[in-house]
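Problem 3 from the worked examples.
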Amino acid sequence: MIYKDKESLITARINKSDIVLDVGFLGQGIQSDSSHWPHLLLKQKAKEVYGIDLDIGEKYSSDSHYQNASAEKFDFSIPFDVIFAGDIIEHLSNPGLFLESCKRNLTQEGRLIITTPNVFNLFNLTEKCAKREPTVNKDHTCYFNNKTLSTLLVKNGFESGTYDYMYTLNTTFRESLKKKALNILYYGLSLVTDKFIETVIVETKVHKVKDI
């Protein structure tokens, strides 16, 4: 499945009965006054939404739904049906600690939804051919693909997950002329194969040991 953007992903994957935690809710390259802000979209779709970020500011500090917290170490008094981690795992120093926190804070049947750049997307591969290294967000610590994500999840007590893709993040960053030209090839290739799509989506649950 290829989703257009996070709005279509949230519409398809979040239920009206879900209690959701949005990890890094103030980031994701979109201003909080935008109608495309993922946290707003979650609040419009889910029953109740909580959020964490490293600096939530005065606006959210008096609301018990929000915490100043690292994605690698957080705890709430209630479990969540869904933990939504949009483009955060590639920023972390220790993604294993993040997954441990997610395990502690999910319901028994809770779902973890992660979006992250696909290391083998067309734009990375093109730049790698043209220069020494692709352009990288200065705060990124790693890149993932399906295999490495699956390995990371299993090593930290989750199922290997199901994988889909997403075209665009709807960020406010301006695209270069080169990127705009590549978009034509990008969309053309996406009609044939999903392996060059820009963003990977994985949905997973905590692995349950079967009784013998």
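Problem 4, a separate protein:
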Amino acid sequence: MKELICIVCPKGCHLKVDEENNYAVTGNACPRGAEYGAAELQHPVRVLTSTVKLNGAARRCPVKTNGSIPKGLLFEAMRVLDDVELTAPVTVGQVVVPDLLGTGVDVVATKSFA
């Protein structure tokens, strides 16, 4: 039995996931907690937030994935972002890296720069 704290909402339910009983989840206050608990042990995913270089400026452009990627790919994804350099203008929602590591998830800008 694994114990987790749910991160789906601010409530932070203390979940218990029974791996031997088809990943049955207890301790959740809502159905989303049950989904999170089972998925976290079988196929953990995360949204990646970071920054990339902005050419000609001392600032960096904040970015994030527009969906979740497998947790095991986070460090490789960060290495991809190390090589990205944007040139203004940049708009919120602009795709910075399409189909990150073949996941079908894009990296998008979260701030505009003129």
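Solution to problem 4. Helices lie at 31-42, 74-82. The CA atoms of residues 73 and 101 lie 8 Å apart.
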